[in-house]
Amino acid sequence: MAIDRLFKDEATEEKGERARMASFIGAMAIADLVKTTLGPKGMDKILQSTGRGHSVTVTNDGATILKSLHIDNPAAKVLVDISKVQDDEVGDGTTSVVVLAGELLREAEKLVNAKIHPMTIIAGFRMASECARNVLEQKVVDNKQDAEKFRSDLMNIARTTLSSKILSQDKEHFAKLAVDAVMRLKGSTNLEAIQIIKKPGGSLKDSFLDEGFILDKKIGVGQPKRIENAKILVANTAMDTDKVKIYGARVRVDSMAKVADLEAAEKEKMREKVQKIISHGINCFVNRQLIYNFPEELFADAGILAIEHADFDGIERLGLVTGGEIASTFDNPESVKLGHCKLIEEIMIGEDKLIHFSGVAMGQACTIVLRGASPHVLDEAERSLHDALCVLSQTVNDSRVLLGGGWPEMVMAKAVDELAKKTPGKRSHAIEAFTRALLAIPTTIADNAGLDSAELIAQLRAEHHKDESNAGIDVITGSVGDMSELGISESFKVKQAVLLSATEAAEMILRVDEIITCAPRRREGM
């Protein structure tokens, strides 16, 4: 009896077969969950939180869906993590990663049931993914030298990325926005310089790209509405100390006159601070905190535009873009870096007034203003656009491009299949299984579009057995089409990340033979 009691009460362990079953099933369930969002005809999911306000998210982005799920199954968590990493690393392909890993496990399960050791399967998967990656590297197209061609590659990639998202109707418009924004970055992958502002109203078509920087604030009363050759001081400091606050301040005085003196002294301190700020020779002061009406008045008298309560992201980005640093003390004006821009003016977008900084020091900066029918549409549009921007900025650095639409998977599958035929021993079964898992992606794309996937994949395979074929699934006509004519492209970097992450995740889950769940901590005094 003593041997059974290794763990505390309520701790559970699953061993061997059962543990493996549990992890396989969990991972496959997750893969099936996001499977339907894959491809140009993929559907969206509504996620409703149970918290306060029951906020609703409508999304097609694999990582967003999985991030919002609360999952118990440990293997499923691994898949959620790889999709998160894929999202951070390259921005797109979050669904593909999960679907591929899920399929690899589905195939692995069959092999395990056929009494093939997990380590053998892993060795096979390793060989297969290596082979698949090499064949992709041979097939890439690189148009970095030819600016015209490279731009059209980028446009194609943007269109392909956006076609599976909510923006697919206006993908021309948005692809152009995204490419213009990324081209301005001149090769840096710092997406901070591209600011996305969401304003409900209008339709998605009314979205536009604006060079410069837009701050979502109104200009205060009695202040200049337009400043040319602005020198900007970006600050994070309290400008609300000129009154004795009633709450939280204990002041003992003999008479009311003393209170008045105190107030006068505080006001004097404030005036000095404002003088110090003005002595920087600026004509625009942006502060993260409140500015009370007294200092505001002083600024207005000096002809300085004072903006209060600019939110933190706004401030950081404004500092970055105008080349200024955020200051919080003003004693030595020479050590503070001021921001510069050519023109500050107030603009209207829809109903709202915003402040527009144009001709900023950092030439890469720009702002994309999204318009749309409702906040949900805008949120989803922002996610989709962010995916496109990530992929494009990665492609500008690593300019290798592949065709899309299931073409890379077919190419990899063909190469991996040939490897399986050459490999002796049990590993060949695993390599063959890898081929089947790769085919799952084009199959899913076809299934989601309501096409006969078995028929299409068979046709694709036949096409790819001829040398140098560009065949892929053309979802619009529902047949096999030429991907280079249709202009469906993907970034090599994204595909490579999908392949490697999925294989590693599947490998990790395969290695599991025991799941131990720890007993919950007891509350004291139970």
Q: Approximately how much beta-strand content do the residues carry? A: 15-25%
Shape: globular
* Low-pLDDT ranges: none
* Largest pleated sheet: 7 strands, mixed
Helix-and-strand structural type: alpha+beta
**Total number of strands:** 19
| Radius of gyration, in angstroms, nearest whole number | 29 Å
The helical percent reads 40-55%
Distance between the ends: 27 Å
Number of helices: 16
Mean pLDDT: 83
Main location: cytoplasm
Organism: Solanum tuberosum (Potato)
Subcellular location: Cytoplasm
Pfam families: Cpn60_TCP1 (PF00118)
Overview of this protein structure:
By secondary structure, the chain is an alpha+beta fold. 48% of the residues lie in helices and 18% in strands. It has 16 helices and 19 strands. Strands 7, 8, 9, 10, 11, 12 and 13 form a 7-stranded mixed beta sheet that branches. Strand 2 (45-48) and strand 3 form a beta hairpin. The longest helix has 23 residues, at 256-278. The protein is globular and about 95 Å long.
Give the SSE map.
Layout lengths: L11 E4 H20 L9 E4 L7 E4 L2 H6 L6 H16 L4 H20 L4 H22 L1 E2 L4 H17 L7 H14 L9 E7 L7 E4 L1 E3 L10 E10 L20 H23 L5 E4 L5 H9 L3 E3 L4 H11 L3 E2 L11 E11 L2 E9 L5 E7 L2 H23 L2 E4 L3 H16 L4 H22 L4 H13 L5 E4 L4 E4 H4 L2 E3 H19 L3 E4 L9
Parallel strand pairs: 5-14, 8-9, 8-11, 9-10
Antiparallel strand pairs: 1-19, 2-3, 4-15, 6-14, 7-13, 8-12, 12-13, 15-18, 16-17
Helix pairs in contact: 1-3, 1-4, 3-4, 3-16, 4-13, 4-16, 5-12, 5-13, 5-16, 6-7, 6-11, 7-11, 8-9, 12-13, 13-14
